[in-house]
Design goal:
Layout lengths: L5 E6 L13 H19 L13 E12 L8 E11 L4 E8 L5 E13 L5 E2 L35 E6 L14 H9 L3 H5 L1 E10 L8 E10 L6 E10 L2 E12 L5
Antiparallel strand pairs: 1-3, 2-5, 2-8, 3-4, 4-5, 5-6, 7-9, 8-11, 9-10, 10-11
Protein name: Thioesterase
Organism: Atopococcus tabaci
InterPro entries: Acyl-ACP_TE_C, Acyl-ACP_thioesterase_NHD, FATA/B, HotDog_dom_sf
Length: 260
């Protein structure tokens, strides 16, 4: 496969879907993050310029936003694809696509990664030689790309709240909570009645502080009608531990009876 665009086929299993047969967004993100690791291994892994080779550093996800034109369903064949976009001294930018069986793009995602030192748990600067042999869509930039702020909790809407506990199997190989758990904690607080009647059309999440084993999570959210489009909704989320912010999330929703 070419360095610039890495693509794999996937047939959606029943356990990857909700009871209506729609693929769960956190599950999809798990596959895409795994795809990014496979892509890195196929292009840089094991080389002299691989910053992960010594086991001291790891890639961590800082931010991503997703536009969903269609929700894939059980038994559908889809293609998961990713490409390197660009980088600067602190962040690497990667895009993901989800394509249907006819190669139409149905989901597009922009993401921001950083390198973290596993001992200090701090980000480290990116070196040019990490990327010198990669096919980047854009050249290196001296500027950090800015994304829109996550929508704040509404002061006029009901505050939805729920607590969660971090279990042993919630911890991943980076020694912190798997990033898709934040999506679960955000989505779940909206309740089954709303979720069964609405589809996701947009998601943005910004990670702020790590969550660890045996932490108690407080998930809170507000849900408002989108002032720009009748019949659609915006949910704003805060994931916290002991009053400290761990992640901010923004979801956009549309009725299952409407076209995305």
């Amino acid at each position: 496969m070419a360095d610039g665009y890495y693509k794999k086929e996937h047939v959606i299993k029943g356990y990857e879907c909700d009871f209506q047969g729609n693929m769960k967004f956190p599950t999809l993100m798990n596959y895409l993050i795994e795809l990014s690791g496979d892509h890195w291994e196929a292009t840089v892994g094991g080389t002299e310029t691989d910053p992960l080779a010594k086991g001291e550093l790891t890639w961590i996800l800082i931010y991503y936003q997703a536009e969903l034109a269609k929700i894939p369903k059980k038994d559908e064949k889809i293609y998961l694809a990713t490409e390197y976009r660009s980088y600067n001294r602190l962040f690497a930018y990667r895009n993901f696509d989800v394509l249907d069986e006819d190669n139409n793009i149905i989901i597009q995602i922009e993401s921001v990664f950083a390198l973290m030192d596993l001992d200090s748990r701090r980000m480290v600067k990116l070196k040019d030689d990490y990327f010198e042999n990669l096919q980047l869509k854009e050249p290196k930039s001296s500027r950090i790309k800015r994304y829109p702020d996550i929508a704040a909790l509404s002061e006029e809407a009901e505050l939805l709240e729920r607590d969660y506990y971090v279990r042993y199997y919630d911890i991943d190989s980076n020694q912190h909570v798997n990033n898709t758990l934040y999506l679960d904690w955000g989505i779940d607080v909206l309740g089954g009645e709303f979720l069964s009647q609405h589809h996701l059309t947009f998601a943005a999440i910004k990670f702020d502080k790590e969550v660890h084993y045996e932490d108690y999570i407080h998930s809170k959210a507000t849900l408002i009608e989108n002032p720009d489009r009748k019949g659609t909704y915006i949910s704003s989320h805060r994931i916290e531990t002991e009053g400290k912010l761990n992640a901010e999330i923004e979801f956009h929703w549309i009725s299952s009876q409407q076209e995305i």
